[in-house]
Amino acid sequence: MPSPSAASLGRSPAADRSREQWADEVRAAVNDRPLGVGGPRRAPAGRTGAVRLPLDAGLRAAVARTAQQHAVTPLTVGLTALAVTLTRRTGTHHVLAAAPDVPVALAVRDDLTRAELLAGTDLSLKRSAALCGAGAPAPELPNPLVEFRFGEAAGSLHGDREISIALRDGTGAADGAQLVALHDTGRYTEDCVTALLGQLRTVLEALCGEEAVTAGALPLLDEAGQRELLEHGLGEPLQQDGPEPVHVRAAALAAAGPGDVAVVCGDEQVTRGELDAWAGRIAARLVASGVRPGDRAGVLAERSAAMVAAVLGILRAGAAYVPVDPANPDERIAAVLSDAQVSAVVVTGGAEQRVAPLGAALVTADDPAVRHEGEPLPLAETEPGDDAAYLIYTSGSTGAPKGVVVEHGQLAAATLARRQVYPGAPVFLLLSPLAFDSSAAALWGTLTAGGRLVVAGPDEFRDPEALLRLVERHAVTHLLCVPSLYDTLLAAAERLGPSRLASLTTVITAGEALPEALLRRHVRTLGGHSSLVNEYGPTETTVWASYRRFEDAGPVDIGGPVPGARLYVLDGAGRLVPPGITGELHIGGAGVSRGYHGRPDATSRAFLADPFAGGDARMYRTGDLVRWNPAGALEFLGRRDNQVKIRGHRVETDAVEAALRACPGVREAVVVPDAAGTRLTGFVVTDAPDTLPAAREQLARTLPEAAVPSRLRALTALPVTVNGKADRAALAELAERREPTAAEPQSAGGVNSPDQAADPVAGVRAAWAEVLETSAAVPGDVNFFDLGGHSLLIIQLQDALGRHTGVRPSVVDLFRCSTVDAQATLVRSGAAGGAEAAGTSARVEQARRERAARARRRRAQQGAAR
């Protein structure tokens, strides 16, 4: 039977259009978190709690006076205050409420005056009441989750209703007015509702006050609440004023104990006195080459004791060090050092040719003449003041590198804070590359505390089993790494025996989110003698800003402020956000860096005046979404932009997508991370999918390794959301779907099939297909890393090879032998005489080639000198 027309019901088409437009506005104002807290919306549990908050007689009278002055009802005044409260808590401009049973969509903008706010609420209320009546069939509308009443009891929690608030007069002579809230006890605690009513009362007081205000100026927190939040975010004071620069303190410790071992790498041990003299000779050569205080000097060095001497020597010369990762492509290294305008580059043997085109002065830190010959440069008598200590480069939003300038004062303060949190002289295992900002934590936190720095060498840092041997051999007490790497280290410890890590007292994870499962694994494996500390901090605030120490398993958060730091959770207008409500983290205090080198616009956008500290204090706007939990700690909730962490490295997907779009044949591109934060998948719209391997090679020449997508997938079109934007959630789900592989392992134990054991090439290909999650045939001469492999996948590949071939080569050998054919040779050698023998042969050959290369360079240099 056809539906009756509007005309047959006596309604005009215009009235129907108006009614449907109103219904759309109501539906658009629905929020899954109507109070700005809790998880996604769900049906009430059926249990109702009640919370009452007294109001003084003056406020009740002010509500009546304000209503009279603006020709509205007291209900409109209360509903306006509720709208302001809810929009602040949810970070939106539109909310849905009921007054008392009519759904009302309310809009709040910060620039609206009191009169405009009240008039807008009054109009919305009258419009909703009119359109809900008139005998017309009711459109399908969401049941408002928040109800407000005036002068009557709060309504029952029917349907999806979660909270009903009433502003009531006293019921007896001794009673005053009060706010009463009925709430779903399964969704909200009494403390949560009490806090909401307190904020509503604060807004109501300001809305009905004498001073002219706009919506943006209405406070959500009273003065006591603001003071409490500021105290939450205030780190303990630093224990000394004006901490000395890190290289000055390291030199003082060298003078006090020159025979103490400072750095260990492989079989090499360097005492404090030797390290100080080595750094002084590097400094002398830098000064002789023209480096002056305030200049910048690059560091391109493999993980070694020479790398440590290099950065100390640069600081001693009065320059700032600019570390670049040898794993990066030459074009990326050149881009970083050119942007930094370095006057010189300190390298270790073999890297000279990679930076020769720059034309900068070169000092080879591990040259025996540099280490042992010549007079060291004396330590400068004058302090460096606000001079830069280092520049570390992160991914830029346009794809160009962006250097963060950290001054001596900021580095000294952050390092002093580290000594306060981790007292004593640690034996610290340095795992981070120098170009990774957390290297500053291990390097300077150890050298300025009188500890011993154990540097994982170029091979050792890749191999969890080698790292276990380092910890055991040197009785390492502290280490810092990204959670994904620590997970592989624990897996190796579980396989070889947790006693290998018995010396560890402190494990620090940083750089990416700490999974709760990893915390449980740590407690299960090392619990009782080792604490796990979750550190958080951007490069822009000198490595760290907050930390949480865990002795037992439990919910994960990023804790509270480090000494000398100030943490603020703010909304989009820079106002403090109450506990439990999501806001953006801003960091102030002694560790806030100078800004971005040569990028004043980017600096002014991210580094803001700190209104809570006053004076010339600044704070850094992180872009990270957080909230204070009931325990006074910060919960990390994600990013407000498209920046992600891949194996601890900051990657801006916008930059990767821009680089992809510049590749031939690519029309559109979107990049998404995997759930574990270990790799990127790029989805591209292209008519020539066969060109994608070349596109990936082009990216690998210009982008850091972590920013190069492990996989590129061709699509005919990108999925889009209802507003026409690329549907990143759908693409992330697609990226997690594993493609069928050529061969899957049958068990975690043995060889996948007899054929694969007999044919090493087939076994290696099957292992690659499993780890790289591809069904495509793998050529014998293609590099594992060119197909999307990375350091963590190599560890998985080692296990997969054991299953598919029965031989488990060392991680180091897999890095060196990185094609199917080369790894098949490893497998054959391992099957015949043990993988260790094959690895030894490979290492001997590699060492022979390196010695020959060094000899050729020395002969060339001597010839040039003659």
UniProtKB/TrEMBL annotation:
Residues 834-844 have a biased composition (Low complexity). It comes from the Bacteria. Keywords: Phosphopantetheine, Phosphoprotein. SMART domains: PKS_PP. Residues 1-23, 738-757, 830-866 are annotated as: Disordered. InterPro entries: AA_adenyl_dom, ACP-like_sf, AMP-bd_C, AMP-bd_C_sf, AMP-binding_CS, AMP-dep_synth/lig_dom, ANL_N_sf, PKS_PP-bd. Residues 14-23 have a biased composition (Basic and acidic residues). Residues 755-831 form the Carrier domain. It holds the Pfam family AMP-binding_C. Signal peptide: none annotated. This is Carrier domain-containing protein. It comes from Streptomyces daqingensis.
